Amino acid sequence: MLEREDFVDENRVRLAGRRLHHVREILGTTNGDELRVGIVGGRTGIGNVDRVDDDALEMDVRLETEPLDPLPLRLILALPRPKVLNRTIAAAASMGIGEIDLINSWRVEKSYWKSPRLSAESIRMQSILGLEQSGGTILPTIRLHRLFVPFVRKELSGEVPDKLALLAHPRGAVEAPRKVEQAVVLAIGPEGGFIERELQTFQELGFTAVSLGPRILRVETAIACLIGRLF
Amino acid sequence: MLEREDFVDENRVRLAGRRLHHVREILGTTNGDELRVGIVGGRTGIGNVDRVDDDALEMDVRLETEPLDPLPLRLILALPRPKVLNRTIAAAASMGIGEIDLINSWRVEKSYWKSPRLSAESIRMQSILGLEQSGGTILPTIRLHRLFVPFVRKELSGEVPDKLALLAHPRGAVEAPRKVEQAVVLAIGPEGGFIERELQTFQELGFTAVSLGPRILRVETAIACLIGRLF
Question: Minimal CA–CA distance to A58: which of A26, A28, A35?
Answer without folding.
Answer: A35
